[in-house]
Amino acid sequence: MSVRRLENIPGFNIDRVAAAAGDDPDVLRLENLDTDIPPPAAALDATRAAIGEDDANSWLPFTGRDDLKDAVAAFIERRGGPRYDGRREIVITSGEGDALLDALFCLTDPGDEVVLTDPTYAGMLNRVRLVGAVPRLAPLRVVNGEWRLDLDLLRAAVGDRTRVVFVNNPSFPSGWVASDEEWDAIAALCRSHDLWLLYWADFESVLFDGRPLRHPAALPGMRDRTVTVGSALEKRMIGWRVGWVVSPGDLVNDVSRVHIYNGLVASGFAQIGVRVALDEPDSGQAAANAEWERRRDETVRQLSGLPVVSAAGGWSLLLDTAAMGIDCADLSERLLKEQVAATPIRGWGGEVADRHIRFVFSNEPVERIALLGERLRRAVGENG
User: Fold this and answer.
1) Is residue 1 exposed (0-12), middle (13-18) or buried (19+ Cβ within 10 Å)?
2) Three-state DSSP class for 359?
3) Low-confidence stretches of the chain (pLDDT beneath 70)
4) Closest Cα to residue 197, out of 172, 210, 214?
5) What pLDDT is attached to residue 182?
6) CA neighbor of 353 nearest in space, from 345, 365, 361, 363
7) Residue 313, helix vs strand vs coil
8) Residues 6 or more apart from 221 whose CB is under 8 A from it?
9) Which of 125, 143, 233, 379 could form a disulfide with 334 if both were Cys (CB 3.0 to 4.6 A apart)?
């Protein structure tokens, strides 16, 4: 019998789809947030060089290497974020998952409410539930072919028990990128209701069509009420499992304490590799973004004529299967028979999420994505 804290926490659709896809090389792998674009060469070299060094194979320091903390602070400031004292306001974690849970434990008590978008990443939504907080949803809407946040319903989602607004940007699975108006509205809500902004910045610079990078902690009055979670994901360093929590002021003491009992220490040699990646002026980011944009464009082209919304950033986009008269889980099953692995996002929010299936375009070359349209149309045509 499950404990009550797990009653409303479903399993993860991604691993079920991945297991069903198996290791067939002909399957289009569009189900998981991976990428085949390699990490920065300098980061690979630094990681290899650090393996076997005594100080890279230690429990210490528990909250991360000081040189990496300094690199994270400089990285954020170079991108237009505020200045942080890396050694006093940043905790290094064992990936973004630990970091999100650490932050939520420090920002909420059981029964407090957290506002998220619908759809949102299941790992965000269910970590809110794991700490005993209650998710409240503000829907994303399609306006002029792009995702936009319903600002009226965002404001309506805030109540007396609300403590946190929790967003990632670019947002996955949708690829929504917040506009200036949306960021201003989120910041105004946090200031007027004395809320924390928990900002997950993993794909912050993975932006398409010339969109600028905006860091919400740089908005007026937001530096000391924004907790930023980041990692080396956009540097293509998925397996390094290094993340961070930017914890302004005295909050760092709480985050440090939770992290020591939750994730403890991130890999020393992985931290060294990530530091080198953050110190590199570009790390191949522009070239990677250009390739991911090409793949996004081809995915949209393959889904032309169907209710798909192009991603403004990130690694995935959504197709509205309900508008096609098909359940998202049903379409996922049909696609597997046509050698396409794609994840239904039921449970990744509310009514909006339940309508959609996700296609991750970051892990297949354009030449293989070009197979998607024919396979999907065969899947749709199976039952008329």
Assistant:
1) exposed
2) strand
3) 1-2, 382-384
4) 214
5) 98
6) 345
7) strand
8) 187, 191
9) 379
| Residues 342 and 335 sit within 8 Å (Cβ to Cβ) | yes
Contact 371, 28 (CB under 8 A): yes
Q: How far apart are CA 247 and CA 87, in angstroms?
A: 11
Strand partners, 357: 319, 344
Q: What is the pLDDT of residue 219?
A: 98
The per-residue pLDDT for range 108-166, each reduced to its tens digit, is 999 999 999 999 999 999 999 999 999 999 999 999 999 999 999 999 999 999 999 99
CATH H-level superfamily of 4-39+284-381 = Aspartate Aminotransferase, domain 1 (3.90.1150.10)
Length of the chain: 384
> Three-state SS for 314?
coil
Q: Which CATH class is domain 41-279?
A: alpha beta
Domain ranges of the chain: 4-39+284-381, 41-279
pLDDT tens digits, 337-375: 999 999 999 999 999 999 999 999 999 999 999 999 999
- Bridge partners (DSSP) of residue 166 are 198
Contact present, 170 and 203 (Cβ < 8 Å): yes
Q: Is the pTM of this model over 0.70?
A: yes
Q: How far apart are CA 289 and CA 315, in angstroms?
A: 10
